[in-house]
Write a structure and sequence with these properties.
Elements: E1 8-17, E2 22-31, E3 34-39, E4 49-52, E5 57-60, E6 62-67, H1 80-89, E7 92-97, H2 108-121, E8 125-130, H3 144-150, E9 154-155, H4 165-177, E10 182-184, H5 189-192, E11 197-198, H6 201-206, E12 210-211, H7 214-230, E13 234-236, H8 242-253, E14 258-262, H9 264-268, H10 277-282, H11 286-292, H12 315-326, E15 332-333, H13 342-345, H14 362-372, H15 378-385, H16 387-393, E16 408-418, E17 437-447, E18 450-454, E19 459-460
Parallel strand pairs: 1-4, 1-5, 6-7, 7-8, 8-9, 10-13, 11-12, 13-14, 14-15
Antiparallel strand pairs: 1-2, 2-3, 4-19, 5-16, 16-17, 17-18
Helix pairs in contact: 2-3, 4-7, 7-8, 8-12
The structure holds zinc ion.
Length: 462
């Protein structure tokens, strides 16, 4: 806690605030945890601490609306303190935690427990997503009105997917009534069955059971129809397949209240990564190998850090996700940060749990694939981490407007560094990007005017 007064002057940075169409060199003055002014030649009160943001980007605090903090009940993998510490290191000032915990977050009491614990132990703001169905079992609706009153910002059965369309329709009707977005992990169980990787060339070569792209696309189509039928806002989580992007693009043109998110692993890696680093760098990773330099990161065949749900897909799917991000079809970026213990992942591919960590690498990977690769402007990328998730969830966040909460991220888009999973602030190490050279890194994370994490103390007394 370097700035106990919650007041701070950030000087010399390039301020990018997409919600206000602002992109210019400017200072940002924070007083009592709120944005007080943005501009040049500000006159701060005497004695206020200065933070030199020269050469850096200063933007609204980044929001990750898809994070598994594993509380309650799975704290060997992660807890509120470690998960939010990792988020802060990644440049995130707010996260939304998923309800597939033990027990599931499907009652007002559990929501209250997480919110109360998060204020004591969390380093960044924690917003809670409640379950759609009791125990995420897909059979009976959770008390959606009670969850809303307890403060959830959305409902989702993430990790699972409501298969019964009539039940999902009712969930949408309640969500609409309570003005909650429905976030959906799109997976058709009858098509996916027990698939563990993308169904395609590599699943055949490796002899692993396939998880076909259609297993996602069918549910995206279902969600479009239900959003149209009920008028509820449905948000499709972690899109991985080309067909999903095409469906979403067409539906959005018609004005259907539907949206989508993408995670870096789906637009950096492909299913070739499951066949090991050599296969990946030789084929689908060619374009990325140059930046890694001579010593390419290595991993074995059947590396369980390449197992997630939905799975890494083909190069064609990856291209479609990138195009969807570039043309605005996919409005939101997030990590699906899913920590697991080493002993859980150190098993045969078939038996390993799905998921990888992500909050510390997502900003860099997004910058690399979208901004440095010239697919998207810097403001366009920042909007997908700030304004857009805030709008979906009706959070009073995601801007540097005067009077807004002083959640601010300072990052260096050009900083080159190597991610070492063992240095992560997360409890878990399950990242496929261990040893990768990355470009772009958070320098300081400011929540309510307090620097909760900074790369190095650049504070100088005024
Ligand atoms: Zn999911």
């Amino acid at each position: 806690m370097l700035a106990p007064m919650n007041s701070l002057l950030l000087t010399g940075g390039r301020v990018v605030d997409p919600a206000n169409h602002f992109d210019s060199p400017a200072d940002v003055l924070i007083i009592d945890g709120k944005i007080s002014a943005v501009g040049r030649n500000l006159s701060p009160p005497k004695g206020i601490e200065h933070f030199n943001a020269g050469g850096k980007i200063v933007c609204p605090g980044l929001i990750d609306l898809h994070v598994h903090l594993r509380e309650p009940g799975q704290t060997a993998k992660e807890n509120l303190a470690t998960g939010t510490a990792a988020a802060a290191r990644g440049g995130f000032t707010s996260v939304v935690c998923m309800p597939n915990t033990s027990p599931a977050i499907d009652t007002a009491g559990t929501v209250a427990l997480i919110r109360e614990r998060a204020t004591r132990e969390g380093v960044v703001n924690v917003f809670v997503a409640g379950a759609i169905t009791k125990n995420i079992a897909g059979e009976e609706l959770a008390p959606i009105g009670g969850l809303k009153r307890a403060g959830v910002v959305a409902i989702t059965d993430d990790g699972h997917c409501v298969q019964n369309h009539e039940l999902m329709r009712h969930a949408c009707q309640y969500a609409k009534m309570f003005e909650l977005p429905v976030m959906d992990h799109c997976q058709d169980y009858s098509l996916v069955t027990d698939g563990v990787m993308h169904e395609g060339y590599w699943s055949t070569v490796l002899g692993l059971r396939g998880w076909p792209a259609a297993g996602e696309e069918v549910i995206v189509a279902r969600n479009i129809l239900l959003a149209e039928l009920t008028g509820a806002r449905i948000h499709c989580q972690h899109l991985s397949a080309a067909g999903s992007v095409a469906l979403l693009r067409e539906a959005k043109k018609r004005g259907v209240p539907i949206s989508g998110e993408a995670c870096p692993h789906h637009f950096v890696l492909t299913d070739a990564a499951v066949a090991g680093s050599e296969e990946f760098w030789n084929v689908d990773g060619k374009g990325l190998a140059k930046f890694q330099g001579g010593a390419l990161p290595e991993w074995p065949k059947y590396d369980t850090n390449c197992k997630m749900n939905p799975p890494l897909r083909s190069a064609r799917d990856r291209k479609a996700i990138l195009e969807g991000l570039a043309d605005g079809t996919i409005e939101i970026l997030c990590s699906d940060h899913a920590p697991h213990c080493d002993y859980e992942k150190e098993v045969e591919f078939d038996y390993a749990p799905f998921g990888i960590t992500g909050v510390e690498t997502e900003l860099a990977l997004s910058l690399m694939q979208l901004v440095h690769a010239k697919r998207l402007s810097l403001a366009g990328l920042i909007a997908k981490f700030t304004e857009n998730p805030a709008r979906l969830l009706s959070l009073n966040k995601g801007t540097l407007s005067v009077g807004a909460d002083a959640d601010v991220t300072v990052f260096d888009p050009d900083c080159e560094w190597v991610f070492r999973a063992e240095e992560s602030a997360s409890k878990s190490r399950n990242s496929p990007f261990n040893g990768w050279k990355l470009k772009g890194r958070a320098v300081a994370t400011i929540v309510g005017g307090e620097i909760v994490w900074s790369e190095k103390s650049e504070l100088v007394a005024a």
